[in-house]
Design brief:
single chain, about 250 residues, alpha/beta, Rossmann fold, 7-stranded parallel beta sheet, about 50% helix
Length: about 250
């Protein structure tokens, strides 16, 4: 596939981009940090199948005005865009968000509004070419309102419903939407936080996500144990959820 990838420089995104490059996918990276992009591109070009070149351009999820230009550059390089992967986003703890309204506004804007605007641009490009795959990372935090992740979970809940709606609206036109719902993953984003049960490593999650992309799975829980965990959480009565710290 010819893939535009936003968020390949860190964590799960880096592991997924490496797996895609190693199997022969052509990648064009978006990101906001030129040094990180240059370093990641060099790493991926070493790992890529012979004859496949990874390239990049600056594209900041906090600057929606630059989305169209970035996609234009990707299209010029790749020729055709078959897939778009979005792993980028912001995270902060509930306590930190409650202390800082500016941080709350930034997180909600980036993880919900701007991510949707980015996906809208991606969809228009994919649909114009007859379809393709849009793989976007949401979170199990959006499955239900929960005490430790009220604000972050709200953003991810909205994103999840948006992606579901895209699947319903455009499936017949060839768009394949893959909504990824990771649990706790050991990355820089979660460094220093208490580690809950079922914590996963980025490469294990990346392997499961890539399989989901290939199978055109509309929802990917990673690791899969979260399918059962979140089914239980959704079934819990409200009075239990009020007392839960999960």
């Amino acid at each position: 596939m010819n893939v535009v990838f936003l968020g390949a420089t860190k964590g799960i995104g880096r592991s997924l981009a490496r797996r895609m490059a190693q199997r022969g996918d052509r990648l064009f990276l978006f990101g906001r940090d030129a040094e990180d992009l240059e370093r990641t591109t060099a790493d991926l070009n070493v790992r890529a199948v012979s004859g496949t070149t990874v390239a990049y351009t600056l594209c900041d999820l906090e600057q929606p005005g630059g989305f169209a230009e970035a996609f234009d550059r990707a299209g010029s390089h790749l020729g055709r865009i078959d897939g778009v992967v979005v792993t980028a986003g912001l995270f902060a703890t509930q306590d930190a968000l409650e202390r800082d309204r500016a941080l709350t506004a930034r997180l909600l804007t980036v993880d919900f509004v701007n991510t949707i605007l980015f996906c809208e641009e991606a969809c228009s490009r994919l649909l114009a070419a007859g379809g393709g795959t849009l793989c976007v990372f949401s979170s199990v935090a959006g499955e239900r309102g929960r005490t430790p992740v009220v604000l972050y979970g709200a953003a991810k809940a909205g994103l999840t419903r948006y992606l579901e709606g895209l699947d319903h609206r455009f499936y017949a036109r060839g768009l394949r939407v893959v909504c990824v719902k990771p649990g706790f993953v050991r990355t820089g984003m979660t460094a220093g936080l208490p580690e809950p049960p079922f914590a996963a490593d980025p490469d294990d999650v990346a392997r499961q996500v890539l399989r989901g992309i290939d199978l055109e799975s509309p929802v990917v829980y990673a690791p899969p144990v979260w399918i059962l965990v979140m089914a239980l959480v959704r079934a819990l009565p409200r009075f239990v959820m009020r007392r839960s710290r999960f």
